[in-house]
Write a structure and sequence with these properties.
Layout: E1 8-9, E2 30-31, E3 42-44, E4 57-62, H1 74-87, E5 92-98, H2 102-113, E6 117-123, H3 136-142, E7 146-150, H4 152-158, H5 160-173, E8 178-180, H6 188-204, E9 216-221, H7 225-236, E10 242-247, H8 252-268, H9 278-281, E11 283-286, H10 297-310, H11 319-332, E12 341-346, H12 357-360
Parallel strand pairs: 4-12, 5-6, 5-8, 6-7, 9-10, 9-12, 10-11
Antiparallel strand pairs: 1-2, 3-4
Helix pairs in contact: 1-2, 1-6, 2-3, 4-5, 6-7, 6-8, 7-8
Length: 376
């Protein structure tokens, strides 16, 4: 098992101390280095006119490039959550997500990287014998994660925290010392991963052909921590962008309330000052379509077209729906975006696409694969 000696001291962004409502906040003392390749790059994202009208300026921050196995936005939060797990003396980690959860996969691999056993509560109505090994499930199993299945009905009735607590209690009864990580790593501690990311973004502005300022920052909203963290960070930092979150699971009202309670108030601690509201920090829109992790043919065609024209792979659960929603918004409200520098924060999630093989296959051209010609 890795010891606390592998941890590094954490210094919060300087603008945190200038916010009265964060005076009672308790920044993490340590972070776990090496989980993520940082800083992630920012590049101009040129797309053909049928996807992006030529009079819009679009950029992308590649948090899908934080690593390979550990790729995605969840790794920024896990730097602090896994450091806390080590400091607490834990010997295993418990978290929860959908059956193709990127967060669960990243947590499993991060836990193994520091010698902790991962336990994953995955919500699905698929019987254990029929789960298969597609996408994130394969990586979870390769990491030796212990899988606990919860039905969708149980998840709705009990909630994610209660399900995690059941597994925590079972492990404690067996003499283990589990550390609970919330859905998406989205609590006050995990939020520091994206306050830190905003400071990283600040340091990139005006360098390597990146604009001096972004006017708009957009990302998928799946558990609220990334969106809430970016919203808080932008409001405190030198950035002056509008922050847009595209909800891929629950309604905007749900996420406004969730970010208020589980992100902003959690990070604020026992603040005696007025705490900002999520509605003041971010603009949320619903893009879940026919349902969480469910895809229409049009959505999958969009993912195919973006990959074919730019080499950027979006996933069907989060980034694909969010980016499609952003482009739709830009077309519907052109006066609000023309002449502005818009940044899409790619949060990763590529491995989940493999679970959609049967739906994607009919959308691909059979002529793309052929035998090499005989020797002339």
């Amino acid at each position: 098992m890795a010891s606390a000696a592998c941890l590094r001291p954490y210094v919060p962004p300087p603008w945190v101390s200038k916010a009265p409502w964060l005076a009672a906040a308790k920044p993490p003392l340590h972070r776990l280095p090496g989980l993520a390749n940082l800083p992630t790059p920012i590049v101009r994202w040129d797309l053909p006119p049928h996807l992006l009208p030529p009079d819009f300026r679009l950029w992308i921050k590649r948090d899908d490039a934080t690593g390979s196995e550990l790729s995605g936005n969840k790794v920024r939060k896990l730097q602090f959550l896994m450091a806390d797990a080590l400091n607490s003396g834990a010997d295993c980690v418990v978290t929860i997500g959908g059956v193709q959860s990127n967060h669960a996969r990243a947590t499993a691999l991060a836990a193994r990287a520091i010698g902790l056993e991962p336990h994953l509560v995955l919500r699905t109505d698929t019987p254990p014998a029929e789960l298969g090994l597609a996408g994130n499930l394969l990586l979870n199993r390769l990491a030796g994660a212990k899988i606990w299945l919860a039905t969708m009905q149980d998840y709705v009735q009990s909630g994610s925290d209660a399900l995690v607590n059941r597994v925590v209690q079972a492990l404690q009864a067996a003499g283990r010392q589990p550390y609970a990580v919330p859905l998406g790593g989205s609590n006050g501690l995990g939020t520091w991963g994206y306050l830190d990311a905003v400071q990283e973004l600040e340091s990139q502005m005006g360098k390597d052909q990146v604009p001096e300022q972004f006017t708009d920052i957009a990302m998928a909203t799946g558990s609220g921590g990334t969106t809430g963290g970016i919203g808080i960070g932008v409001s405190l930092s030198s950035l002056s962008a509008r922050v847009h979150g595209f909800s891929t699971s629950d309604s905007p009202d749900y996420f406004y309330n969730h970010i208020d309670k589980q992100v902003i108030r959690d990070i604020a601690g026992n603040s005696t000052h007025s705490v900002p509201s999520a509605r003041d920090l971010v603009h949320l829109r619903d893009v879940k379509g026919i349902g969480y992790a469910k895809s229409t043919t049009e959505e999958l065609e969009f993912i195919r077209d973006v990959a074919a024209h730019s080499g950027v792979v979006l996933d069907h659960v989060y980034s694909g729906k969010a980016f499609r929603g952003l482009l739709k918004l830009m077309r519907e409200e052109p006066s609000a975006f023309k002449g502005r520098d818009v940044l899409f924060w790619h949060t990763g999630g590529i491995f989940g696409v493999f679970d959609k093989e049967s739906q994607i296959a009919p959308l691909l051209s059979p002529t793309d694969v052929q035998m090499i010609p005989a020797r002339l």
